[in-house]
């Protein structure tokens, strides 16, 4: 039954009660299936008695967990964010290549590990990503809106959720000079679709290429932590 849920893009992990222990802060290696293939970053000011916001960060095609972590690492300490960043099992995320598989299983396991050791605010759990990772965050986040309260999609190419659960708030950004995933056929189509589906969408276009400018990362973080 659990495998079926993962194949459908459904995540089982959920935030637990407040942790009694003092979980470590700073950068932690995540070891899934015996491989050191991801990171968890807990901010310097983390305290188990104060539930922290958490973001799962998904890198672009051909990148790895370090690139995903870099999307919001500069904001983590000031905003008190717990960050999870994994490397995709293939050159990009499984569902972008056609079907949910080992990547969604790994994300579920990483979340279970985070929820069991760190105290996470269930009202501030986000899926975020860049490029292919943004497409994956939109698709996975919409299908798991009973877990993810927010979605951050930086320069997405598409969205194809297998279902619609809950109503997460969504932040989308895209460069007007994006030559890799042109804005006209990507975010300028995606955002109206989201709005027609009833989602609360914050959309930011900027004068730039296929990147995530620091100002966009800061704005997305402020949007997320504000509720």
DSSP strand count: 8
The DSSP helix count reads: 7
CATH superfamily: Alpha/Beta hydrolase fold, catalytic domain
Lateral arrangement of strands in the main beta sheet: 1-2-4-3-5-6-7-8
Tell me the series of helices and strands, N- to C-terminal. HEEEHHEHEHEEHEH
CATH class: Alpha Beta
End-to-end separation in angstroms reads 34 Å
Overall mean confidence score, pLDDT: 93
Spatial extent as radius of gyration: 16 Å
Low-confidence stretches: none
Q: So, CATH architecture?
A: 3-Layer(aba) Sandwich
**CATH fold-level label:** Rossmann fold
Shape: globular
Portion in strands: 15-25%
Structural class of the secondary elements? alpha/beta
């Amino acid at each position: 039954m659990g495998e079926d849920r993962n194949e459908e893009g459904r995540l089982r992990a959920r935030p637990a009660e407040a942790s009694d222990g003092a979980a470590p802060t700073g950068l932690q290696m995540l070891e899934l299936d015996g491989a050191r293939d991801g990171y968890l970053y807990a901010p310097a000011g983390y305290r188990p008695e104060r539930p922290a916001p958490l973001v799962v960060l998904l890198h672009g095609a051909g990148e790895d967990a370090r690139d995903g972590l870099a999307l919001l690492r500069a904001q983590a300490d000031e905003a008190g964010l717990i960050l999870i960043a994994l490397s995709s099992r293939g050159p990009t995320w499984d569902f972008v290549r056609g079907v949910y598989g080992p990547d969604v299983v790994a994300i579920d396991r990483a979340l279970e590990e985070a929820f069991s050791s760190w105290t996470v605010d269930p009202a501030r759990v986000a899926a975020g990503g860049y490029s292919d990772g943004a497409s994956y965050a939109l698709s996975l986040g919409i299908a798991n809106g009973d877990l993810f309260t927010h979605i951050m999609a930086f320069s997405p190419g598409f969205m194809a959720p297998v279902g619609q659960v809950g109503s997460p708030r969504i932040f989308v950004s895209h460069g007007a000079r994006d030559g890799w995933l042109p804005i006209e056929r990507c975010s300028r189509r995606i955002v109206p679709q989201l709005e027609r589906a009833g989602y609360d969408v914050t959309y930011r276009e900027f004068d730039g290429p296929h990147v995530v400018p620091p100002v966009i990362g800061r704005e997305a973080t402020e949007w997320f932590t504000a509720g």
